[in-house]
Amino acid sequence: MTDMTFDGRAFINGERVAARDGRTFDCISPVDGRLLTPVARCGETDIDAAVAAGRAAFEDRRWRGMSPAQRKRVMIRFADELLAHADELALTETLDMGKPVKYARSVDVNSAANCIRWYGEAVDKVYDEIAPTASNALALITREPVGVVGVIVPWNYPMIMAAWKIAPALAAGNSVVLKPSEKSPLTALRLAELALAAGIPPGVFNVVPGYGPEAGSPLALHMDVDCIAFTGSTRVGKQIHVMAGQSNLKRAWTELGGKSPNIVFADCPNLDRAVEAAVGSIFFNQGESCNAPSRLFVEASIKDAFLEKALALVPRYQPANPLDASTVMGAIVDQVQLDNVLRYIESGKNEGARLLAGGSQALPDSGGCYVQPTIFDGVTNQMTIAREEIFGPVLSVLSFTDAADVVRQANQSIYGLQAGVWTSDINQAHGVARALRVGTVHVNQYDEDDITVPFGGFKQSGVGRDKSLHAFDKYTEVKTTWIRIDSPV
Questions:
Q1: What is the pTM of this model?
Q2: Fewer CB atoms < 10 Å away: N or C end of the chain?
Q3: Per-residue pLDDT tens digits for 20-32
């Protein structure tokens, strides 16, 4: 494992290449602080080259000119390539961003492969339409690939977030230029090599690592990019929309932040399951999930009992070496994010929340970036830890008295990504679910998922949906062809 080597060069037009100006940045592992590899620090000229390669591939129809059935076969081989290299990809993901290797292998690799396979399987089963016009006309409604798609993904689920975007975009016949996060670029670069090996032609899928202002902004501003798909912070997402408008009015799809409420009523059908889900979901992936249920609302009459059970589970989630197969919580992605999480914890203390567990850096002698699983009680919606996305293992516990009270509190957020509702009353479940302004409501579970359902949010949690057949809407244009029929009959 310590002898594993990585290639940090960009992938443009089917080849590994250095940045045009030769610059690199260091890719440091949050596991122990080791240098993994220098990575190409790409800039505007590299983005230009990648977009030009994507445009040439699109115009000569080397990929979009294939039948859907042909693209399907290649996409399935692409998914098979991921599974054939699963151990390598999982280890790379863990070393690069710190998550436990067992989850990188069982969740991230498998989910990314399943996503790519699913969109490959779907693309030759999506039919176009004929409009119900008068008998003297035939109106065809068809979908065409949008062109060159720019993709910018975050560091928390590098493979999964990339797959959610590149799979439908590629399956639909587009060219893609992917800019991974500078905090976790390595698996994205490897995906491009595996795509080429599977039969996706050179130029169709390009990966250009670099910093946001130097590579991400030129991609969003590029006049020859037809669509930009972004997952990340709401702050940057707003900038993406501005840049799309400043350039060529490219389609902009943004999956952004969350501060998801998890609501437990006193008639919760299984309190132990609710506790397991509340604790497990906020501490999974070190809390570095946009849909993490970071605001826990517990009805006042059962809050003490709930918290007693929750605190008993905290030792299970103490961070440890992510390369150990028994570890369930690993490292924060880097020192910058670790410092951010610790600052939020201090703000919780300073604003009057009651610290029940954690609250400090963990494993300080490891050379890595670790933080204790942290729970605050006595939180109000006005506190910083209840309003802002922390992206760390920090749970804020609030109380409520009735359904109207908790809906008001839960909706009191700029975000609207996901929510959970725990109740035995089917009327209450439906009523609260409809009243919550979020993209997904989980009832008597949290985080159960499938590629067949859309993912995205209301309000400042973003625009558009990943996953499901709805994702094709983002990467295709709808065309009407109206044919006049002068029938002799």
A1: 0.97
A2: C
A3: 999 999 999 999 9
